Amino acid sequence: MIPRPRYLNRIKPFIDAPLIKVLTGVRRAGKSTIMALLQKELAVRGISPDRILYYRFDSLQYDDIKTAKKLYDEIREKLSPEQKTYVFLDEIQEVENWEKAVNSLMSDCNVDIYVTGSNSRMMSAEISTYLTGRYIAFEIFPLTFSEYLDFRRSYAQPSDLRTEFARFLRYGGFPAVHLTEYTEDEAYQIVHDIYNSIIFTDIVRRSQIRKTDQLERIVKYMFSTVGQTFSAQSISRYLKNEHRSLDVETIYGYLKKLEDAFILHRCSRYDIRGKETLKTLEKYYLADMSLQYAMLSYDPGEIAVMIENTLYTEMCSRGYSVFVGKMDAKEIDFVATKADQKLYVQATTEISSRDTEKREYENLLSIQDNYPKYVLRLDEFASGNHEGILTMNVIDFLLSDQW
Q: Do 103 and 193 have their domain in common?
C-alpha cells in the first residue's frame, strides 16, 4: 500500500476520540485503502488483530448483514470483553438503517468506529441527521499531483516534472489508474467502469431513476461545460435542441444526485467585498477530469480547464472551502478559506501580452487585504513578487507545502 499521509495525518488525532470517523468521497478515490492504512497504524501502536474488526459490505462475504439489528448483533458478539475494539465498516450504505447500529454501538460499547460510503446517505446533511453530532467527516479525493508522483515512483522512474504533470492531466487521479503502467486506452476503460458504477449504482439504482437518457444527457452537458458559469436555462435549451424537454426543478434534482455521488462539485460564488456566499452564477468541477476524457474524449485545447479543475480539487483535498471570487465586476478564479486562513488564486496557461498580464494582476490588486494572493502560470517565466502578488508555476504551487 502506498501511504497517503495528507489524510492519515488529518485522521490520526481523532483515533480513540468519542466520534465516529466518516470517510466519504467518489467511488474508487481510495477510502478503503485509507481504512487499511489506519488499521496498519493501529498495529504499529500495539493494538492486537483481534481488537480490529473490518467489514466490507459490497463483498458477498457480508451479504447476509443487511439490517441494523443484524449488524449490531454481529459486532457486539466479537467485541473485546475488556479493551476497546476498533471497528471499520466499509461501504456502510449497503446496510439498511446502518446509523441505528452505529449509534447504539457508540452508546453501549467500548468501540472506536470508522465508516466509509459513496452516496447521498453519506453527505454531511444526511450524516448530521443520522449520527446526531457524534461524528467527524473526511472527504477523500482522487490523487493529487504529489500523490500521483508517489504512485508513479512505486512502479516506474518518473520523467521530469513537466512531463509527469502533462501525463497526470491526461490520465487523471483515480488510484486504480496508477497501480501499473497502463496505456491510455486501458486507463480510460478503468475510468469508464468507475463512471458506470457511480451513475448506475449510486444514482440510477438507488434513486430508482427510470429515464436514464435524461440523466446521461445532463451529465454530458455538465462534463462539457466544466468551470463555466452555470445556468439551468442553458441546460434546458441544450435539451430542447436534442428534442428533449425538462423543467428547471428536475434539472436541479439531477444535479443534486450527481453532487451526492461526489462526481460533481459545486463551487459557489463569494462576494469578497460583501463577505457573503451568493446563490447564483456558481460553477461546477469534476471529482476528476479523467471522467470527462473517458466519456467525451481528451481535448488538449482544454488545458486551462484541466488546470482549474486540478487546482480546485487540490485545495479541497487540503481541507479548504473553495469559491469563485466576485469583486465588484471582476472575477477571481478561486478564493480558498480554512479556519483563519484565506488565499486568492488566479490561474492561466500563459501570459503572452500586456493585456493578459493586466487582467490577471488587476483583479487581485483590487482586493485590499493582507491574505496571500497568487498568479499561477504554466509557461516559462521568472518567479517573483508583483506588488505583493506571488507569481508561481502551477506545478510548484501544487507541490508546495507553504499554503
A: no
Contacts of 354 (CB under 8 A, 6+ apart): none
- 238: pLDDT confidence band, cut at 50, 70 and 90? confident
Number of Cβ within a 10 Å radius of residue 330: 15
Q: What's the pLDDT tens digit per position in 151-210? A: 999 988 999 999 999 999 999 999 999 999 999 999 999 999 999 999 998 899 888 898
Residues 313-370 have pLDDT tens digits of 999 999 999 999 999 989 999 999 999 999 999 999 988 788 878 888 999 999 989 9
Are residue 112 and residue 159 in the same domain, yes or no? no
- Spatial contact of 80 and 109, defined as CB atoms under 8 Å apart: no
Three cell numbers written together for 10: 488529518
The sign of the torsion formed by the CA atoms of 141, 147, 152, 154 equals: negative
The whole-angstrom separation of Cα 94 and Cα 330 is 46
Which three cell numbers mark 136? 467527524
Q: 115, 139, 163: which is the final residue of a domain? A: 139
Name the nearest CA neighbour of 112 among 77, 88, 147, 141.
88
